[in-house]
Write a sequence for this structure.
């Protein structure tokens, strides 16, 4: 018996199944209600090489003209360290996270504080500060 990705645990490590978590955002059947949900769904999109979703959820003011994802980058774990604002009634939010990855034979951690805004009832990624 084959299990669909929708029935597997979500890559963002929320504890929910992908179809009920980030999958619904990726398919466009729902929008993230919080900045943290958007952060988690963007992490999952990076892991799944879903550049279209990443571009749709990037603020047009700061989005790159194009986005080329590296298929050799294996995202392994997401840890949300803190959030500020970013709730269903907020217009701005900040999420600090660590995303662990493997690339070739190396391993690493992306530690970023990301900024989000909510416009027209949709959360969008604006930019982030990467910590050394």
């Amino acid at each position: 018996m084959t299990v669909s990705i929708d029935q597997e645990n979500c890559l963002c490590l929320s504890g929910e199944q992908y179809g009920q978590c980030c999958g619904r955002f990726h398919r466009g059947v729902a929008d993230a209600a919080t900045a943290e949900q958007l952060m988690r769904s963007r992490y999952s999109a990076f892991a799944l090489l879903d550049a279209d979703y990443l571009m749709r959820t990037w603020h047009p003011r700061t989005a790159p003209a194009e986005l080329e994802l590296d298929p050799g980058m294996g995202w392994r774990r997401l840890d949300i360290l803190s959030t500020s604002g970013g709730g269903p009634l907020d217009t701005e939010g900040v999420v600090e996270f660590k995303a662990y990855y493997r690339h070739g034979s190396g391993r690493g951690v992306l530690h970023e504080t990301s900024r989000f805004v909510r416009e027209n009832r949709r959360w969008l990624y604006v930019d982030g500060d990467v910590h050394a």
About this structure: The chain has one domain: 5-131. The beta strands are 73-85, 92-103, 106-119, 122-131.
